[in-house]
Write a structure and sequence with these properties.
Length: 576
């Protein structure tokens, strides 16, 4: 189903039938009125987060009425996961600057009285958005519920009405009441029936339970799951969508034809994994090209901090956009003290790589509107042991894109990647080690003397039949604080350094670094909490600890302005 594109005039007005003014700050929820301490070195400048308290899964992102909507899991009562979670709601015109609205869905009825957990939005014919969400009922069973907008002419969709006959799906026979959650965006089959999958497990086998409906109200469980994996446990926040084989453009969730592959994504073991394959709509089966193995061989969206993600099709720009929850790496006590916990990633465009073997991801183009002061470097050689400061930009808020040439490949170390866990290898061969080619890359959020640093770097090895590129995010020296998690992350990047330059883009934002290697083939997100390197005391360096020189073929870096993400503004829509 396609959403007709509305006419948008400027950043703050669209054509509507009447003048509408919305006070986007929720004055009815006291938790949003409390302002956190100004001394917040780890608050971000351009990543989405509410004014305070706990945030987790992104829910039901969509474009409607000229406005981008983001719902998300939120605890209005504190900075830890709560026993009465709600759907908070924010809107944007550009996916970067956000206005917080009143909460969309809160526990009120027996079918969701103990929490309103994750779910999705589907746009029905007639441009009618519908929410499916998991409610934690009076018996603490997970059930699926439906909600619709009270006023479709309101582009903000500020009020939602729960269906009078909720719940519309309950745990089927054989499924435990606490293992039945997170409905996906629904898709319409060639027979006109709607389909949706629910995350679950049976006998410790993760699976996507399939339901079908003719009217989006009465749902029937299909005789077998759409997909089941013997190597995983409980599936959370599944996602199922098509990607074009021949284009970077996104396609509507209901598209089914030979020009697409399908993505089956599941959240488990604290990461988001996916497999590619084909959807057989007649047999109601997803035929994957590989299976989840429970090992480092599995494809992930992100090899660092990134979980419970959700995509949506943006028909205005013909792209599929991915959101993911980025949790903290400090302690619960730290979260309570600072008064908040959790971020959303920068929204990413996602599409199928030309090889057909994996997805590519890249920050949405709108993030570039925050770019400010720029520095550029071309053709600079980084000698062995070099550390070069990148000055002229704000190191705490930066967007850096660099391309490395590695001219001396002949003598690199040999490695057979069979059975090698790249994360463990990055932990062993950290940024301080010395290889032939690498480590080389960026030292982010660093103190002047490099006592604190978060290194994003590459190593190059010679494999049995091709060169192997390893990408690492080394947090071992990220902070002098002892209580924070400093796990090092790593993954291989599927590129051939003989044929293309090794690229890295990092979005640096006070306590988060989102990095994209190989032009989006490998993504690693990390959270860090430096003590010495705070705001003005932060520095950014390029380094090369390999014994061979590397060349900075091209580098562009920008200071990043602060996005407008708050709850105190109002928007005015002007009638024609």
């Amino acid at each position: 189903m396609e959403i007709s594109a509305p006419l948008v005039v400027g950043i703050c007005c669209v054509f509507l039938s009447s003048l509408i003014e919305v006070e986007a700050y929720n004055r009815n929820i006291h938790s949003l009125q409390v302002i956190v301490s100004e001394n917040q070195p780890y608050r971000t400048a351009f990543h989405f987060q509410p004014p305070q308290n706990w945030l987790n899964d992104p829910n039901g992102p969509m474009y409607y009425g000229g406005v981008y909507h983001l719902f998300y899991q939120y605890n209005p009562y504190g900075a830890v996961f709560g026993n009465r979670m709600i759907w908070a709601h924010s809107i944007s015109y550009d996916l970067i600057n956000w206005i917080h609205l009143n909460h969309a869905i809160e526990p009120t009825d027996p079918f969701d009285i103990n929490s309103c957990w994750s779910g999705s939005v589907t746009i029905l014919p007639g441009n009618r958005p519908v929410i499916l969400y998991t409610g934690l009922d009076a018996n603490n069973n997970q059930v699926q519920n439906l909600a619709t907008p009270k006023n479709l002419s309101d582009p903000f969709l500020r009020e939602w009405v729960k269906f009078s006959k909720n719940p519309i799906m309950t745990p089927p026979n054989g499924i435990k009441g606490n293992e039945f959650r997170d409905p996906t965006t629904a898709w319409k089959g060639l027979d006109g029936k709607w389909r949706v999958i629910i995350g679950s497990e049976l006998n410790n086998h993760g699976m996507a339970i399939l339901y079908r409906s003719e009217d989006f109200v009465s749902w029937t469980k299909y005789q077998h799951p759409l997909y089941i994996s013997e190597e995983t446990g409980m599936w959370e926040c599944p996602d199922f969508y098509p990607v074009s084989i021949n284009s970077t453009n996104g396609v509507d969730t209901s598209v089914q034809n030979p020009s697409v592959k399908h993505v089956m994504k599941a959240s488990f073991n604290s990461h988001d994994y996916y497999v590619l394959g084909n959807y057989d709509s007649e047999m109601e089966r997803f035929i994957s090209e590989s299976d989840f193995t429970g090992t480092s061989l599995d494809l992930r969206y992100d090899y660092g901090k990134f979980y419970a993600s959700k995509t949506f099709f943006d028909n205005v720009k013909n792209r599929r956009i991915l959101w993911g929850w980025v949790n903290e790496s400090d302690s619960t006590e730290d979260d309570i003290e600072k008064g908040w916990s959790g971020l959303q990633s920068i929204p990413r465009q996602v599409w199928l790589d030309e090889s057909g073997k994996q997805l590519l991801q890249w920050p949405v183009e709108e993030i570039e509107t925050l770019r400010d002061n720029q520095v550029s470097i071309h053709g600079k050689k980084l000698l062995s042991g070099a550390v070069f400061e990148l000055s002229g930009i704000t190191a705490a808020q930066a967007d850096v894109e660099v391309f490395f040439e590695v001219p001396e490949l002949e003598e690199v170390e040999f490695m057979d990647p069979t059975g090698v866990d790249p994360q463990l290898l990055c932990g062993k061969e950290n940024a301080s080690s010395n290889g032939k080619l690498g480590p080389f890359g960026l030292l982010t959020l660093a103190s002047k003397d490099l006592t604190e640093q978060t290194a994003i770097f590459f190593r190059v090895f010679r494999g049995p039949s091709r060169y192997i590129v390893l990408m690492c995010s080394d947090q071992s020296r990220s902070s002098l604080r002892k209580e924070v998690d400093k796990t090092t992350f790593g993954a291989f990047v599927d590129i051939d350094p003989c044929l293309e330059k090794i690229s890295l883009r990092s979005l640096i934002d006070h306590s988060i670094v989102e990095s994209y290697g190989g032009e989006g083939r490998t993504c690693i997100t990390t959270r860090v909490y430096p003590m010495l390197a705070s705001d003005e005391g932060m520095h950014l360096y390029l380094f090369n600890n390999g014994t061979s020189s590397v060349i900075i073929s091209r580098l562009n870096a920008w200071s990043m302005k602060r996005a407008k993400i708050n709850g105190k503004e109002s928007l005015r829509y002007r009638a024609t």
